[in-house]
Amino acid sequence: MILRGVSLFGLAQVAALVAGLVLQAVVARALAVGDYGRFVVAHSVSVAALMLLMSAVPNALRRLVSVDCGNLRSAWRAVWLVQLPISVLFAVILCCLAPLVARAMNDLLLTPALVIIAAELGVKAGLLEPGWHLLNGLGRHMLQACLMTGHSMLRVVCVICVLQVSVGLVESVAGLLLSAAVSATIAVPIVQRLAKNMPGDPYGGLGRELLRWAKLAPGVDALNYLLVAANLWMLKAMTVDPSLVGTYAACYMLTQTILPFSLVLSRGCFASFAGAVSKDEMQDASRLLSQVARLAALATGWGGVLAILHGEAIVSLVYGVRFAAPGMLLALLGLGMAGMGMLWFFCEMLGAAGRLKDRLGLMMGVSAASIAVTALLARTWGPWGAGWALVITGSSGTLAASVLLR
């Protein structure tokens, strides 16, 4: 029963993943190899910042409506009064720091793309993603999945339309900004109507709950994605050949499609897990974790075999022959991404249970070990070292998280 909602939500997300692959293929074939590498780096900066901004207020509000849907009205008000101003301020700061970030990435051509990415971040983190989170807390998985899938398809359409006018890195990220703005105009009225029609009084402890999440959650979600993105960033900073980084980025982005499956699982299980723990139904919570772990292990095994046998052909088919890479490299990155995906899922379940301090301690320990390993291996063996560093980070983090949850 618990995973039925996950299955429905997951099936709807397959369309979003396919749209994401189409988007990457369109951009890769339109841009030069070096520019595509810059596009991936700029996109990874956006995702890392989005993870940070979505870690506290939206997740706290999602848990509140999971426990009691009557909190939706006050939660939606908090999105406008708290989350939106924070996101806009962060976007302005990122825009001002774009030249410094580009210099740190050893590529000043990234600067205009980062400025546009900052604008997209303000729209997504301020209204679009928080609205999706509230729908998730209500258990409206299908509605949330449809909105997210529609946004993914809009991204492809908008980028293609912009590239028809002019081809370039700036135009590619401008299409992402346009799609975020259109999706927000669709999602915001839906959540607004639900909040207006939802019975219930404002939650009196909202301020305390937001403060608790603000103190303990942002660091965890930032580290979660930074452990993935830093793998590419370190390789970019240590490699002078942009074509080599572009080829690695193609494998990186192809295997990164594993991570949304982790989000599918966590969003599908969050409300059920939070409800089971709050009612002290630990047997149901334990059964959910076991089912997810078995499913992830099976999918990872089959995916690894496929990548080893046909990885080079898959990369060439999606991105073109210029990006061809050995199948073992694709399998290596896939194994690392699978480990990171399970770590993300376990962290989300700790958050659903309200165990924020345990969650923070786990990620601090994993991060401390990962940074040193990634820097050493990426500098010594280049792309292969970076791939092995991701595997070590994902497997060790997953093992530690599973022990903590048990």
Features:
mainly alpha, 14 helices
Model description:
The structure is a single chain. α1 packs parallel to α6 and α3 (57-67) packs antiparallel against α4. It contains 14 helices and no strands. It has 406 residues and is an all-alpha fold.
In brief:
By secondary structure, this protein is an all-alpha fold. 88% of the residues lie in helices and 0% in strands. Helix 4 (72-104) packs antiparallel against helix 5 (111-137) and helix 11 (258-278) packs parallel to helix 13.
Explain the layout of strands and helices.
Blueprint lengths: L1 H29 L2 H21 L3 H11 L4 H33 L6 H27 L3 H25 L3 H29 L8 H11 L1 H21 L3 H14 L2 H21 L3 H38 L7 H26 L3 H50 L1
Radius of gyration, CA atoms, in whole angstroms: 20 Å
Order of SSEs:
HHHHHHHHHHHHHH
Number of strand elements: 0
Tally of DSSP helical segments = 14
Question: Major sheet: size, sense and barrel closure?
Answer: none
Termini separation:
22 Å
